[in-house]
Design goal:
globular, 170 residues, 2 helices, Jelly Rolls, mainly beta, 13 strands
């Protein structure tokens, strides 16, 4: 299965071309119900009406973080990665840039925090992608990503981050 196109009424949201389709397919086959629930939430929920906070769909296995913030200057952001969760990131309102690079091309700068499932990295080998309401991103453990970067001017952004607990890799 390829990452699906999301239809929100008249709005069509496509997966960004950076999404690792092969890994998405592997993870989807290991737990289709969890992935279907995540995509359905994005498709069926009035995301712009949600207050910032955490929304549990399957406890710690599947939850959504709604964040509101102002995009930041490039040097104020950090490259990050996760080990146990995939991130589905979708900008509800506004726009930002997200730097993306393979984990293998990055060096760890802050050790892994097991409680938060995050570690930070450095790399000069990032490709910038525009995140806007017409596309979404899926980041797996091999995808280092640096969200929240301003695209031109600093601007307010509202974003949904769906945290999908991963099954063992095949």
């Amino acid at each position: 299965m390829k990452p699906p196109i999301i239809n929100k009424g008249k709005q069509v949201i496509v997966p960004d071309n950076s999404v690792n389709t092969e890994e998405f397919n592997r993870q989807y086959l290991l737990n289709p119900g969890r992935w279907d629930k995540a995509i359905s939430f994005l498709e069926e929920t009035d995301l712009s009406g949600l207050e910032p906070g955490r929304y549990e769909l399957e406890g710690v296995d599947l939850f959504v973080l709604i964040n509101e913030y102002t995009t930041r200057d490039d040097e104020e952001t950090r490259l990050e990665a996760h080990r146990n969760y995939a991130d589905i990131q979708y900008v509800i309102n506004g726009k930002e840039l997200i730097g993306i690079c393979p984990l293998a091309k990055a060096a760890e700068s802050v050790p892994y925090d097991e409680g938060k499932d995050i570690f930070f990295l450095e790399s000069d080998d990032q490709r910038m992608h525009e995140a806007a309401p017409d596309r979404y991103f899926v980041f797996f453990p091999d995808d280092a990503h640096r969200p929240s970067i301003k695209d031109g001017e600093n601007e307010p952004v509202k974003k949904a981050v769906v945290k999908v607990k991963l099954s063992l890799r095949v």
